[in-house]
């Protein structure tokens, strides 16, 4: 079985286009086999996008596990003066996100291959993530807890996790590390969580 958090170069490519309307912006994303939520923008990502804070006074944002770029590119289209770095371990997703950044004219986006934070050199005002639940709790907690080390002081990490897929334990873990943790919204069992450094 192929997983979206792994690379499989032998997987047949079948590019599709997904239209997404976000806060007055019409965006289009290329998707493909072997990436997360290949046929449509998933509910978790679209819900997280609804609640992420206003980023107009932020200089830098990191999208961890960006997939084909839904979250990072959608936000980047709204905040052209903010620098967005998008990272994913899946090379096919990285290449799609690069193309999607170009197609949506988000010149403030950089995309690079990265397993969690291994190639991340900077710190950021905001980290956003819809973590790869199927990769396992260790990977998810690595993303959300170690994000602390890549945030500027006063920065915040935003994530979306379903209650049935570990949101309560994730919140408990975040509360051990971050200054303030809040559940910003709950929609259909999905928790939008903000953790402040």
Furnish the topology, listing elements before pairings.
Blueprint: E1 16-22, E2 25-31, H1 43-51, E3 60-64, H2 70-78, E4 83-88, H3 91-103, E5 109-113, E6 124-129, H4 137-146, E7 151-162, H5 167-177, E8 180-187, E9 190-196
Parallel strand pairs: 3-4, 3-6, 4-5, 6-7
Antiparallel strand pairs: 1-2, 7-9, 8-9
Helix pairs in contact: 1-2, 4-5
Structure description:
The protein has 5 helices and 9 strands, in the order ββαβαβαββαβαββ. The model has no long low-confidence stretch (mean pLDDT 93). Helix 1 packs parallel to helix 2 and helix 4 packs parallel to helix 5. The protein starts with 15 loop residues before the first strand and ends with a strand. 26% of the residues lie in helices and 32% in strands. The protein has 197 residues and is of the alpha/beta class. The strands form 2 sheets. A 7-stranded mixed sheet has the order 5-4-3-6-7-9-8, with helices on both faces.
Task: Kindly list the characteristics that best describe this protein.
197 residues; alpha/beta; seven-stranded mixed β-sheet; two-stranded antiparallel sheet
Strand order of the largest sheet: 5-4-3-6-7-9-8
Query: How does the major sheet shape up?
Result: 7 strands, mixed
Unreliably modeled segments: none
Molecular shape: globular
Note the gap between the termini: 38 Å
Can you give me a brief rundown of this structure?
This protein is α/β, with parallel strands linked by helices and 197 residues long.
